[in-house]
Design goal:
The protein is an alpha/beta fold. 26% of the residues lie in helices and 9% in strands. Strand 8, helix 8 and strand 9 form a beta-alpha-beta unit. The chain starts with a strand and ends in a 56-residue tail after the last helix.
């Protein structure tokens, strides 16, 4: 089966003696789980089988470019701002699209041939599912803070806050039900942008600015201000809506790995209904660790997730 490479190492969730007495679990940072979710849905809609026995490795959502090996395919991936000075070779990596122009320039400096096709594949969530589908019957919230998981402890308490370590479906639903999203979670804002929810980045206390600038530049907003705090973000209000080419990103999808047609040609198909009357969404597509995805724990990933 095609490996969908993403960052999700197994770690102990607690420190000290309590940590030693508990079983290590995957981090499950929601932004890093979006790649398998989006890829599976595109393959399914294209008439393919995500579980089909096929060779290949695909890197997609996340700052995981350093995990690429010779022969891998890259689609919408970003470089990790903490690893820009590492010595690695991308000359034999098949790059179809990258998150933004900063990643493109970096990948070129490492020997890759990179087309000018930009966009985080998380933006396709709003194309694959409607905001109403994802929000369900959740009550609307006037504002929602979604921090990078390293920043979580410092922002809890003053405003409604979503932990990016919550289940993937809960994260998507909470963002869909919000009227404004602010925070240092890259994919908290990516999903808000995807669904048409007003949003603004907050500068992270732990993450380099590279990935935020890369994403903003790749969506036509290179000069957009990043707030220094949650309060400043709320006062500033949302940044402009993204400007990006959805069909170009879909055309760049490596459909040949699954033997399906160009997904941009079937891009308007909606979720099919099963014989039990349940849509794939209702059956819960959030269990994304099922397509021979590689979590990154054994792949030399950096210590930090992309969101």
């Amino acid at each position: 089966m095609v490996e969908i490479v993403h960052w999700n190492p197994v770690r102990r969730r607690r420190r000290g003696l309590a940590g030693l007495l508990t079983r290590p679990r995957p981090v499950d940072n929601f932004g890093d789980l979006l790649g398998p979710l989006v890829v599976r849905e595109i393959v399914r809609r294209g008439g393919g089988d995500p579980e089909a026995r096929r060779d290949g490795r695909l890197l997609t959502v996340g700052s995981i470019l350093s995990m690429a090996r010779a022969g891998d395919v890259v689609w919408g991936t970003g470089a990790n701002g903490k690893l820009l000075h590492e010595d690695y070779d991308l000359s034999r990596v098949d790059v179809r699209a990258v998150r933004g122009p900063l990643t493109r320039a970096f990948a070129q400096s490492k020997g890759a041939s990179v087309p000018e096709v930009y966009g985080d594949p998380g933006l396709l969530v709003g194309h694959l599912w409607t905001r109403a589908e994802l929000a369900g019957d959740r009550p609307e919230t006037s504002r929602l803070v979604v921090p990078n998981f390293h920043d979580l402890a410092s922002v809890r308490g003053r405003h409604p806050t979503l932990s990016p370590l919550s289940p993937l479906g809960d994260c998507l639903g909470a963002i869909a039900a919000s009227e404004l999203v602010v925070g240092s979670s890259l994919h908290g804002v990516v999903i808000a942008d995807a669904l048409g929810v007003p949003a603004r980045f907050v500068r992270s206390a732990t993450e380099p600015e590279f990935k935020y600038r890369d994403y903003l530049s790749g969506t036509g907003r290179s000069g957009t201000a990043i707030a220094d705090s949650v309060d400043e973000a709320l006062a500033m209000g949302p940044h402009p809506a993204p400007c990006w080419d959805r069909d170009a990103l879909l055309r760049a999808f490596p459909a040949g790995l699954w033997g399906i047609e160009d997904p941009s040609r079937t891009s308007e198909s909606r979720r099919s209904v099963t014989t039990t009357g349940e849509s794939g969404l209702e059956r819960g597509p959030w269990a994304v660790q099922r397509t021979h995805e590689t979590s990154g724990a054994e792949q030399g990933a950096g210590s930090d997730g992309s969101s």
